[in-house]
């Protein structure tokens, strides 16, 4: 019997400034994965597809955009910092 490969997908919802909640959850997940596999691992290492709508798309870009070594430029913790620092400018009516 052939073994089928399972695709792993991370889907991130929209919701404006509430994207910070996704960032907090993703930070928790990434920290647990780092405890298992080392501090250099990122969420993008564990998912075949990462996609999102609206603020989820922003988070997707942040955690998957590559640096010069073709590794994710930002950690999930950076996402939370980004929202804390910029939410009022990006989402002025929330």
TrEMBL record:
Location of the PNPLA domain: 10-94
UniProt keyword annotation of Disulfide bond present: no
InterPro entries: Acyl_Trfase/lysoPLipase (IPR016035), PNPLA_dom (IPR002641)
A Pfam family of this chain: Patatin
Coiled coil: none
EC code: 3.1.1.-
Keyword Transmembrane: no
Segments carrying motif GXGXXG: 14-19
Keyword terms of this UniProt record: Hydrolase, Lipid degradation, Lipid metabolism
Motif (GXSXG): 52-56
GO molecular function (one): monoacylglycerol lipase activity
Gene Ontology biological process terms in this record: lipid catabolic process
Function: Lipolytic acyl hydrolase (LAH).
Domain comment quoted from the record: The nitrogen atoms of the two glycine residues in the GGXR motif define the oxyanion hole, and stabilize the oxyanion that forms during the nucleophilic attack by the catalytic serine during substrate cleavage.
Family (UniProt): Belongs to the patatin family.
Protein name stated in the entry: Patatin
């Amino acid at each position: 019997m052939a073994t089928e490969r399972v695709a792993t997908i991370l889907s991130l919802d929209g919701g404006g400034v509430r994207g910070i909640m996704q960032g907090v959850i993703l930070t928790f997940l990434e920290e647990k994965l780092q405890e298992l596999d080392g501090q250099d691992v990122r969420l993008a290492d564990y998912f075949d597809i990462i996609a999102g709508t609206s603020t989820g798309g922003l988070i997707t870009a942040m955690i998957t955009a590559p640096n010069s070594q073709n590794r994710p430029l930002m950690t999930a913790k950076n996402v939370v910092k980004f929202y804390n620092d910029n939410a009022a400018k990006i989402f002025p009516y929330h």
